[in-house]
Amino acid sequence: MTADEKAQAKGEQVKGKVKKVAGDAVGNESLQAEGRAEETKGDARKAKEAIKDVFKEK
């Protein structure tokens, strides 16, 4: 996983988590959903890069 991709994935995960918690705090379902989506996007990016790393090692 390149450092740039890793940082981008972590940033998306954190940003999504913050939005989700903020949405929970104020009762905004739209913000909660947006946060979950962004967090999932970060998770997917991280998984994609991990798979790429596995194939680079072989």
Structure, explained:
This protein has about 60 residues and is mainly alpha-helical. The protein contains two helices and no strands. Helix 1 runs antiparallel to helix 2.
Question: What's the SSE pattern?
Answer: HH
Mean pLDDT equals: 91
Number of contiguous helices? 2
Note poorly predicted spans. Answer: none
Structural class assignment: mainly alpha
Question: Biggest sheet, open or closed, and with what strands and sense?
Answer: none
β-sheet strand percentage: under 5%
Backbone shape: elongated
Question: First CA to last CA: what distance?
Answer: 14 Å
Gyration radius from CA atoms, angstroms: 14 Å
The count of β-strands is 0
Q: Name the helicity range.
A: over 70%
List the helices and strands and how they pair.
Blueprint: H1 3-26, H2 29-57
Helix pairs in contact: 1-2
Keywords:
0% strand, 91% helix, single chain, 58 residues, mainly alpha
Short description:
The protein has two helices and no strands. The chain has helices spanning 3-26, 29-57.
